[in-house]
Amino acid sequence: MIDVAPAPLKCAYLRLDRATPLASASQSELLGAMCFGAAPVTAALPAGAPLVRVPMPALAAAGAEDCASEIWCGKGEVRYGTRGPLAFGYNRDLLFGAVQLHETSFDTAAAARAGKTPLQLASEAAYTAVFSLLDELAFPHVLRFWNYIADINAESHGMERYRQFNMGRQDGFLASGRAVRGEVVPAASAVGCDPGPLTVYFLAGRGQRPLAIENPRQVSAYDYPSQYGPRAPTFSRASVARLGEADVLFLSGTASIVGHQSLHVGDVAAQVRETLANIDAMVREANRAAPQAGFTMEALCYKVYVRRASDVPVIARELRAALPASTRILYLRADICRQDLLVEIEATAGHPMQFMADE
Ligand code: 3EB
Predict the structure, then answer these.
(1) Which of 12-16, 75-79, 352-356 has the lowest mean pLDDT?
(2) Which sequence ranges form a coiled-coil region, renumbered to this chain (predicted)?
(3) Most exposed among 51, 176, 255, 274, judged by the fewest C-beta atoms under 10 Å?
């Protein structure tokens, strides 16, 4: 048994349609919160704290729509601010931020003349806004990005919207002087939500650059061939961040992809098993990169994106067969960025989590 120090970062999945979801100690150290689903927020949160709603319902065990919030807390005094559409909270070590942009603001004649789609421009603007905040507040390292894109599989302007997003994201990295392949590319998820603005949120840090982890079973996403779009997606498979004395693992959205190909098309149970094999491979890689960390699949906290709500029972059965009953799993109704994928799983480890069922 490896003795693991507590990390100065805590994630909780809780309901904010309850009066007092968080212990008051965590409350004063809250960096920000994301709300999934439509329930009203009645919880008292610190004034000015970022609280961003995503049109992506949480799913209860049988697949019925529900709500949940993802709440990030640090250690020590927090400051809050906004820069235009970007809301953030930070302490000495960590910055949480979220930006929402409506594509309609980018639907201009000038954009059309520039040959860029509104979603591509919104994506580029979201990323340049994030990177300029990182420069301003001196948080050089992104630990993880999350991207939620309405109607992600729809085609417009002659291209699938996920591919448009990939072009805009890469434009934003390049315009901000950031590398788009290799060890400095952050971990991420990109999935489809219900109609609404583009949402990008992130955690960033100071100190040591996080270790970027790739999956030996998969081609690096930034090296995908052009059959998946004119610009490759800009993300690494996982990152390990050293926070205080602890190592925190962020696994990117992971799906039933081996090499660069989608496997088990139409078979959601087999897709879950392949995804778990990918997660197992990445946990091994993470332990090779950070041998002192002792990451295990059992100790991860999972967020599962489900294309069809009716698949939740099958997905839950597969996860129960592979993981202990105590494993913390949040299900969300989301489209996966490839049409042929039914499920995508992300996970984090290394910091204590509070879960809805703990209430
Ligand atoms: C994949 O492996 C599945 O574009 O940021 C997973 C995680 C996926 C992140 C992203 C996409 C992204 O290609 C899709």
Answers:
(1) 352-356
(2) none
(3) 176
| 8 Å CB contact between 302 and 329 | yes
Distance 76 CA to ligand 1 centre (A): 33
Domains of the chain in sequence order: 10-354 (3.30.1330.40)
Q: Confidence class of residue 263 from pLDDT cuts 50, 70 and 90?
A: very high
Residue 244 has pLDDT above 80, yes or no: yes
3-state DSSP assignment of residue 155: strand
Query: Which residue puts its alpha carbon closest to atom 11 of ligand 1?
Result: 190
Asked whether the whole model's pTM tops 0.70, one would answer yes
* End-to-end Cα, the chain, rounded Å: 28
- Within 8 A by CB and 6+ apart from 356, the residues are 13, 14, 15, 68, 330
Q: Which amino acid is at 74?
A: G
Distances (CA, A) of 64 to 9, 36, 56, 58, 331: 31, 14, 13, 8, 10
**Element at 125 (helix H, strand E):** helix 118-137
Provide the angle, in degrees to the nearest 10, between the axes of the packed helices 118-137 and 161-175: 30
pLDDT at position 110: 84
- Tokens 């949040």 identify what position? 330
Q: Is 280 helix (H, G, I), strand (E, B) or coil?
A: helix
Q: What number of H helices and E strands is found in the chain?
A: 6, 23
Ligand 1 is surrounded, with C-beta below 6 A, by 147, 188-190, 221, 233, 235, 252-253, 255, 257, 337
Strands in 236-327 per DSSP E: 238-243, 246-254, 257-258, 261-262, 301-306
Of all residues in the chain, the percent with pLDDT exceeding 70 is 96
Return the pLDDT at 112: 86
Atom of ligand 1 nearest to the CA of 224: 13
Average pLDDT score over residue span 88-107? 97
